[in-house]
Design a protein that fits this description.
With about 350 residues, this protein is an alpha/beta fold. The protein has helices spanning about 10-20, 30-40, 65, 80-90, 125-130, 145-150, 165-175, 185-210, 215-235, 245-255, 260-270, 275-280, 290-300, 305-315, 320-330, 340-350; strands at about 1-5, 25-30, 55-60, 70-75, 100, 105, 120-125, 135-140, 155-160, 180-185. Helix 2 (about 30-40) links the parallel strand 2 and strand 3 (about 55-60).
């Protein structure tokens, strides 16, 4: 039996995929009214309307029952809720349960972690591990827009963990004709890529609202990839991870698709909305807003240059005008195209 915690669109899609593979699935939703509506109509009308819930998926609001006997648990709750959910599930898991985070976000000091202070930078899997030390933890990330997966569009994702058996079992549980699951041992890099790309999706939405051409969008996405990979390497990630589905793949689809909540928020800001107005207009949590704040603080601490993050922080949190920030970014010093290539070339010259 498999449990999926989180009744949003992605949690619902994952539950359906697993059920179609022949597993009994318990889909936990926090709201009993949502559970009742889902059971009555046979679909998650709030987050994934028009797509029937598989007959082997049972929606419920009882967390203890959802986790009872589960050998594999997918956590698909918003980042703001993951600490609370992790604490609640900790004493309900059997030892060595496979716990896979699908949440794309980073926790910093403040509202998401009121009991900690100072320099805080935690990925979702690290929070799960801290509460569930006997669990075997992995992450799932990639270019995975839930609406397209639900339609049966061909999609690839990445399961990441240093635990090879976990990766293999998740691949077997999720793999289907239209949903391919690839493996990567770099859990930190895969998870960090999934969180960071939301930043650049907001920037891409702003660019789209301003009528930017394809050249501009290509430059923005590519510079975003260079910026996020350089930051990730400073945190210990493998730079090659960012050339795969969890890196460039997820970045491309999130920056290009109007289905992305972060893209939608950026588009609204680009049209003149304030951050509060844009968040209300989108109506769903855009993880990239919190990620910008956390990464901006971490980059300053590590002395990693991130011009796009800096610009977005000024627009969203410091009241700077969008046009003013864009002009400054375009007039900024032109640096190396790919920093890692430049560094490698320097090492080769030194060796000679």
């Amino acid at each position: 039996m498999v449990a999926v915690l989180g009744g949003g669109n992605f949690g619902t899609v994952i539950a359906n995929i697993i059920a179609a593979r022949g597993h009994e699935v318990r889909l936990w939703m926090r709201d009993p009214e949502q559970v009742e509506d889902t059971r009555r109509w046979g679909e998650n009308r709030r987050y994934l309307p028009g797509h029937a819930l598989h007959r082997r998926v049972e929606a419920m609001a009882d967390l203890q029952r959802a986790l009872s006997g589960a050998g594999m648990v997918f956590v698909a709750v918003p980042s703001a809720s993951i600490r609370e959910v992790a604490a609640d599930m900790a004493h309900l898991l059997r030892p060595a349960t496979l716990v896979i985070s699908t949440t794309k976000g980073i926790e910093g000091p403040g509202a998401h972690a009121p009991e900690v202070s100072g320099s805080v930078f935690r990925l979702m899997s690290e929070i799960l591990e801290s509460y569930c030390p006997d669990a075997r933890v992995g992450v799932l990330s990639g270019p995975n827009l839930a609406e397209e997966i639900a339609r049966g569009d061909y999609t690839g994702t990445v399961v990441a963990s240093s635990d090879a058996d976990l990766r293999s079992r998740v691949q077997d549980t999720l793999h289907s004709r239209s949903f391919r699951v690839y493996s990567n041992p770099d859990r930190y890099g895969v998870e960090l890529a999934g969180a960071l790309k939301n930043i650049y999706a907001i920037a891409s939405g702003m660019a789209a609202a301003l009528g930017a051409g394809q050249n501009t969008r290509a430059m923005l996405i590519t510079r975003g990839l260079a910026e996020m990979s350089q930051f990730a390497v400073s945190q210990g990630a493998n730079p090659l991870t960012f050339l795969g589905l969890a890196g460039v793949g997820d970045l491309m689809v999130t920056c290009a698709s109007p289905l992305s909540r972060n893209h939608q928020l950026g588009y609204a800001v680009g049209q003149g909305a304030s951050l509060a107005q844009a968040q209300e207009e989108v109506g769903k949590l855009a993880e990239g807003v919190n990620t910008i704040a956390v990464v901006h603080a971490r980059a300053r601490e590590l002395e990693v240059t991130m011009p796009i993050v800096q610009g977005l922080h000024e627009i969203l949190f410091e009241g700077r005008a969008l046009a003013e920030v864009l002009v400054r970014l375009m007039l900024a010093e032109q640096r190396d195209d790919v920093a890692f290539v430049a560094s490698t070339a320097g090492l080769e010259q030194d060796a000679e």
